[in-house]
Amino acid sequence: ELVSCVGWTTADELYSCSDDRQIMKWNLLTSETTRVVKLPDETYPIDLHWFPRSIGGKKQSHADSFVLTSSDGKFHLISKLGRIEKSVEAHSGAVLAGRWNTEGTALATVGEDGQVKIWSKSGMLRSTLAQQGTPVYSVAWGPDSEKVLYTSGKQLIIKPLQPNIKVLQWKAHDGLILKTDWNSVNDLILSGGEDCKYKVWDSYGHLLYSSQPHEYPITSVAWSGDGELFAVGSFHTLRLCDKTGWSYALEKPNTGSIFHIAWSVDGTQLAGACGNGHVIFAHVVEQRWEWKNFEITLIKRRTMQVHNVMNDAVDLLEFRDRVIKASLSYGHLVVSTSLQCYVFSTNNWNTPLIFDLKEGTVTLILQAERHFLLVDGGGLYLYSYEGRLISSPKFPGMRTDILNAQTVSLSNDTLAVKDKADEKVIYIFDAVSGKPLGDGKPLTHKTEIVEIALDQKGLTNERKIAFIDKNRDLYITSVKRFGKEQKIVKIGTMVQTLAWNDTSNLLCGIQGTRFTVWYYPNTVYVDKDLLAKTLYEKDASDFSKNPHIVHFVGNQITIRRADGSLIHLNISPYPVILHEYVSSSKWEDAVRLCRFVKDQTMWACLAAMAVANKDMATAEIAYASIGEIDKVQYINFIKDLPSKESRMAHMLLFSGNTQEAETLLLQTGLIYQAIQVNIDLYNWDRALELAVKHKTHVDTVLAYRQKFLEDFGKKETNKRFLQYAEGVSIPWN
C-alpha cells in the first residue's frame, strides 16, 4: 500500500507509516527493516512528526515519541517502541498534518474540517487558531514558534498565536497548495501545489523564486535542517535545490508520487514516502569547495577528491564516517564527520590532524586565518588549526542550531553573532578568551539585522563590522567600544549581499543593479565626503536578480547568480597593494604607486589612509592630487600649529570628531583653543558655557557673538548672552 509519511529518529534510523496500517523501522547501518506496530482498524496514518530531540544541546525528556495523525479524525502520541500513549479526537474528518514547534512545547494540527488547532505537549487543546470552509492540507511553525503558517486553497496564511497581531495572507499558487515548509535558520518558506510549481517566499510573503511548471502536481517539499538545501517530490520525481531555488539535481525514480520527504538530522540524506509502497533513500553527494587553485568534491559519502588545477594533481581523502560539513579557506580544509573533525593543510593532504567531536552534529564551519569555528546544537567552539580548543563563547538565550554564515562572522581576534531573540542585537566576543568585547554590551541597531560580516585584516583595535539591515541598508561600525558610543555609519543602500576581502580590508557588495567595491570603508571615520571617491562601481544588471557573493579572495570575486551559475569578476590589484604599503607604513611607495596608476580612486583612498594614520605630508600630496584644495590648506595650517596637542585636536576636527577635539584641548589646558573651536563652529552656547565655567575669555565670546549678530543685522535674543552682556563692555580696537 501507499506510504504516507516518514520520519528520522537518528541519522541512521527511519520510521515509515503506510496505508497497510503498519509502522516500520528502517536501520540503514544494518539494512534491517522491522515492523514496530500494526495500527487498529480504520486508523490510516497521514502524517508523522518526531518530538524535537534537543533544544540548545539539552536532550528532551519526550524525545523518543512521535505524533501520528490519521484519517479517523484523531492524532496519536506514540512511543518509539510502538505503544500508543494517547489518542485524541482532534478534527471531524481526517487530520491532514501535525507538527511540533521547535521547542516541543506545542503541537499544531490541521484537518479536512478547515480548522487549525494548537495542543499542549500532553495533547490538551489550547486553542482553535482558525476555522475556514476548505480543508487545510499543510501546516508549519515560524522560527520563533510565535506564528503558524497554513494553507487555504490557493492561499498561504501566516497567523500569529497572539490574537491582536495582523494576519498575513497572500495568493501563492494557481492551484490547490498541497505542502508547505518554513525553515528556522534562513526564515524562508517553501510551497508546492497542484499548479505543478514549487516556490520560495520570505516570511513577509515576497516571492523569491518560482519554478517552471512540472508535469505533475508537487506533492511534497522539505527544507534541510541548516536551510541551505531543499527537496521537492512529485510523480516519479525527486529534485534537490539550493535555498535560492535553482536545482542541483533531478532524479526520476520509479516511485509513484512522493507524498512526504524527511531530511535526516545531519542533513546528509533524505527519505521519501512513495505512492507505490516504497520508501526511497537519497544521499547528498558532489558538493564542491573551491579556494585559489584547489577544487574539492565529495564524490562518495566518505570520500573527497582534491584537484589541484595548477599541476592537475589529484588526491583522494578517505574518512571513517560520512562527511557532514566541510570548509576550505586560508590554506586549510576542515571536515566534520559524525564523530570527528579533520584538519588538512593544503600543502600536505596525507597527514590530517584529527580530533573527536562532542555529542552533536556540526551545522556550520567558519574559518579565519588563525583559527576556525564549529557550531553545533550545543554551542560555539573555536579551535586552532592544531586542533586545540581556544574558547567557547556564550550569551544568554543562545540558540546555536539556527545560526548560519549570514548571522555569525569570525576574524582573527573577534567573533560576532546575531541574536535571534532580538534581531537588532549583535553579540561581539574576543575570540581568544571567549568573553564579550569592551564593556560587554552588545551592539544594538535601530532595525532588524539580516547579515553581518567582520573585516579580516589590520589591527585588533581597528576591527570593523559591516551589516545589512531589514531595509537593505549597509552600515559599518567599529567593534571596540569603550564607554563612548561608536558611530554606526550608513555606507550603502539596497545591498543584497556583501563580502570582505581575505587579504586586505576591501568590502564588496551588490547595491540594486550596481556591483560596488568599497576600497577603504574606514574613510567614513576619516573624511566622510571622500567615501564616494573611494568606490569602484560596475553595472551588475547581467547578474540577474538575487545574486549572492560567494567569496572575495585576492582580487577575484565569485558571484552565484539566481540560476546557480558562477561568475568570476576581477578587480584592479592596485588597491590591495596600496593597503599592504600603508599597513607597513611605506608612504613613499604608496605615493609612487598612485602616481604610476594615475587613478583618482587610489589617490582618494591614500588621502583617507594617510589622515587615519596621521601622516599629514602624504595626506597633503593625495588631497592635492584629487583637487581638494581647501583640505590641503587646512592640513598646512595644522602642520604649522605650535603644540602636538593642538595638532592632534585639529586632526580630530578634520575628521569631524568635534567632541573629542574639544575634550583633548580641555584635558591639556588649552582652554582658549577649545572656546575658539566652538566659536568657529558657531556652537555659541557651548563656547559661553566653557568660558563661564573656566572664568576666562567671557568677553571674547561675547565680542564674537556681537560681531556675528551685527554682520547679519540681528538682535540678541539668547537669555544667557543678554545676562552676561550687561556686565561686560567690549572695546573692539
UniProtKB/TrEMBL annotation:
GO annotation (BP), single: cilium assembly
IFT80 second beta-propeller domain ranges (all copies): 286-574
SMART domains: WD40 (SM00320)
Keyword Kinase attributed: no
Keywords of the record: Cell projection, Cilium, Cytoplasm, Cytoskeleton, Repeat, WD repeat
Pfam families: Beta-prop_IFT80_2nd (PF23335), TPR_IFT80_172 (PF23387), WD40 (PF00400)
Signal peptide: none
Domain IFT80/172/WDR35 TPR: residue ranges: 602-733
Keyword Chloroplast assigned: no
Cellular component, GO, one term: centrosome
WD repeats: 88-120, 170-202
Compartment(s) where it occurs, according to its Swiss-Prot or TrEMBL record: Cytoplasm, Cytoskeleton, Cilium axoneme; Cytoplasm, Cytoskeleton, Cilium basal body
Protein's job: Component of the intraflagellar transport (IFT) complex B, which is essential for the development and maintenance of motile and sensory cilia.
Oligomeric form and interacting partners: Component of the IFT complex B, at least composed of IFT20, IFT22, IFT25, IFT27, IFT46, IFT52, TRAF3IP1/IFT54, IFT57, IFT74, IFT80, IFT81, and IFT88. Interacts with IFT88. Interacts with IFT57 and IFT70B.
Protein name: Intraflagellar transport protein 80 homolog
Originating organism: Penelope pileata
